[in-house]
Amino acid sequence: MLVTGVSGFSGGTVARRLASNGHDVVGTYRRDTGFLAPLRDVKRLELVQTDLIDAGRLVGPFDAIVHIAATSPAPGIGVATLVRDNIDASFALIEAAQRWGTNRCIFFSSLSYYGRIEQDVVDETTPVRDPDVYGATKLIVEQRLAELSAEFSTLALRLPGIVGPGAHRNWLSGVASRLRAGEPIRAFHLDRLYNNAAHIDDIAALVQAALTREPWSGFDSAVLGAAGSLTVHEAIERLALALGVSAKIEGITPTNTSFTLSSAHAIARYGYQPMEIGAMINRYGREIAG
After folding, report:
1. Domain boundaries 2-162+197-223, CATH class
2. What single DSSP character describes residue 115?
3. What is the CB neighbour count within 10 angstroms for residue 156?
4. What are the extents of the domains in the chain?
5. Which CATH architecture has domain 164-195+226-289?
6. Burial zone of 237 (CB within 10 Å; 0-12 exposed, 13-18 middle, 19+ buried)
7. Tens digit of pLDDT for each residue in 7-35?
8. Which pairing describes strands 249-251 and 185-187: parallel, antiparallel, or unpaired?
9. What is the distance between the alpha carbons of residues 55 and 273, in angstroms, rounded to a whole number?
10. How far apart are CA 16 and CA 60, in angstroms?
């Protein structure tokens, strides 16, 4: 199996899980990070430094690909970089997969795929409305994979904020950073329900299950979130309690809509077993408290 982006928080966890469960894994990375150190002694895991633009140089074939590598929006990251790293590199990987005769692909997509969400519960049928550049890169790659569904089967995971040790660039991790710094938490929709997060261990378990159970065919997508729900206010308080700090919470005027996530399809079709949102927040707090 080929796992891309193993120098990242998610990629490293998935690669370790697959290798530890008896799969021969090649993990690619572009830059060295702290997430690589624990992987260097993992049996059945080979680490290869490469840019996915040059995916054709990888020594295949691979029976399955878990494509996690991506560049996220951040200060200094322009449109050209997002297009190169998320679209051009993915297309190069797809072309290589066609030559290798790869059977299955799991693609780490994003809820950004949907753009402006205007319904209370998001699932696979939620309409796409004006995605930003990052969301558009995920949309375009999903469309290309769907076009090739007769050649190999793909499961696109439409992911919320992912939490776990080392998580960053999502709402819960940002709240955790501010709580630990003693800063007030300003949030909107404090009284609305929230389950818009998933723990990386649950996602890695789903990837493992999907790649080892009876093969699916064609292109499919699945929204992933936590089980159950808490209000936004309760979620912040729960995280503060897990971190052993107090929370100063301030409501602000909403700038977007509030919604929850339905993981029903992932649960029924692929055996996804998400943590309950309160338990997940408790665990995440413990994981980063030290």
Report:
1. alpha beta
2. B
3. 24
4. 2-162+197-223, 164-195+226-289
5. Alpha-Beta Complex (3.90)
6. middle
7. 999 999 999 999 999 999 999 999 999 99
8. parallel
9. 33
10. 20
